[in-house]
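Letters spell out the chain; backbone shape is given numerically. Both lines appear below:
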Amino acid sequence: MTVKEELYKACLTFIDNRLTTVNNTILDLQNSLQSETKSSAGDKHETGRAMLQLEREKAGHQLSEIEKQQQIIRKVNFESEHGKVALGSVVKTTQSNYFISISAGEITIDNMTYFAISAATPIAQLLLSKTVGDEIVFRNNTFKIVAVI
């Protein structure tokens, strides 16, 4: 399995884990809303329901973000090679290594650390369309692209 394929699978696992967590949260909130019974303290009951409703909306937004990440990761072709940095590229620099896909954080493969980042992040915006040998200045640090896979 190539590094790019392993990074791709790590991103899929990241999305699956987030999806499971959010779905469990939504299920718990639905159960809490259903078990919330009218008590003699009506205001307390209404406040509790309102809080649960807000949490449910927040979980709904998280679910929407996960769906967007799923759409982006489906566009990544881990079998393709890139001459220029693009969605799906593994970019090795003199500072760090990046996988341009979704924001999934730090991933370690074969004792090498990669940062899975969205193409919308500031660092990715600087890297996109660059090639091996190009220099990038980010936050007053200059680094060079040494490989684009």
